[in-house]
């Protein structure tokens, strides 16, 4: 059996539950307070999952994603999610972000401007979250024996679950930190370089993240 069971929700683990050992472990590795870690994760996790879902809706992107999942099975390598959080490889995470986003620096910079943390700090969080998300889907694929079509459907299903968690969190934790202000600034000017198509695609992805909090 993999690390993640059916009841596990990534957003709840790394954002909603402020008593999560995994959240504290990743925050320490990123050199941030748990509060600042949650600010980045609240935007970063939906962005990563939206990016994966977007890519798997393309045949070539879905094939690439399924191939990448095979590299993240390692079911017997970790005894707990906390151990995975302690040992996850940030270089692997950086590579994953490059595949998920057309312009990973642009996404990082815009989250940075929004939450009021440096781009370097934001990146430290995102590169830790990305391999965990991949491991999550690798477990789903293996346990459910999913083919490529099944994986694509699973990414959509998980995104739907995440959307519900985001809405509940936004409604029930309005005073925990200024999520409205954070999201309101997410679409400001971006000085990063990239193609127009790439920026438009990632802007649309971040628009979808914003919609989740409405």
Task: Provide a compact summary of the structure.
The protein has about 210 residues and is mostly helical.
Characterise the protein shown here:
The protein has 214 residues and is mainly alpha-helical. It has one domain (10-212). It is built from eleven helices and no strands. The chain has helices at residues 10-16, 21-30, 34-56, 59-70, 81-87, 90-100, 104-115, 119-144, 148-172, 179-184, 196-212. Helix 1 (10-16) packs parallel to helix 9 and helix 4 (59-70) crosses helix 8. The longest helix is centred in the middle third of the chain and has 26 residues, at 119-144. It is globular, with a radius of gyration of 16 Å. The termini are far apart. InterPro entries: DUF937. It comes from Ruoffia halotolerans.
* Rounded mean pLDDT score: 79
Tally of DSSP helical segments: 11
Please give the number of β-strands. 0
Q: How helical, in percent, are the residues?
A: over 70%
Order of helices and strands: HHHHHHHHHHH
Structural class: mainly alpha
Largest β-sheet summary: none
Tally of structural domains: 1
Shape: globular
- Parts with pLDDT < 50 across at least 5 consecutive residues: 175-196
Binned strand content: under 5%
Calculate Rg over CA atoms. 16 Å
Oligomer: single chain
Span between N and C termini?
36 Å
Protein name: DUF937 domain-containing protein
InterPro entries: DUF937
Organism: Ruoffia halotolerans
